[in-house]
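Supplementary Text 2. Reproducibility record for the structural model of the 155-residue chain.

All settings were left at their defaults, and a single model was retained for analysis rather than an ensemble. We include the record here because the model underlies the residue-level annotations in Supplementary Table 4.
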Amino acid sequence: MIEIALYQPDIAPNAATILRMCACFGLTCRIIEPAGFVLTDSAFRRAGMDYLDRAAMISDTSWTTFRNATTGRRSVLLSTRATLPYTRFAFRPGDIILTGRESAGVPEDVHAAAEARVVIPMQPGLRSINVALACAMVTGEALRQLGAFQATSSA
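Retained model, structure tokens:
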């Protein structure tokens, strides 16, 4: 399936919300350090609730460590500088959806290293959507494309 990677997240509740989503969908979340908070932070624990214990999380100590651990897999960066809408991108099994820091995105070398970059189209003049919301939108589309959601019947 896919994975989620958070590049040096700096807002604990957003990271915890993404981890909660990963737990619910059975996805692994990679935290590319350093993070702007400690994983025992009370705001982090509060936002993640008891889902954090069910989330598969990998901590990569640096961008280099992350790249070495994920060799051969595509990193799909969510970026306001991208031109391809996420709904027009063809996700593949093994893709890693990569989000940047809430305060600064990703540095140029990380942007350039991503194998693909996608954008969430927005109204002109607005900067960005909350990282947890953006990650959920793009993850939902990736999972839909990959057939992860099974139709259920209501009786």
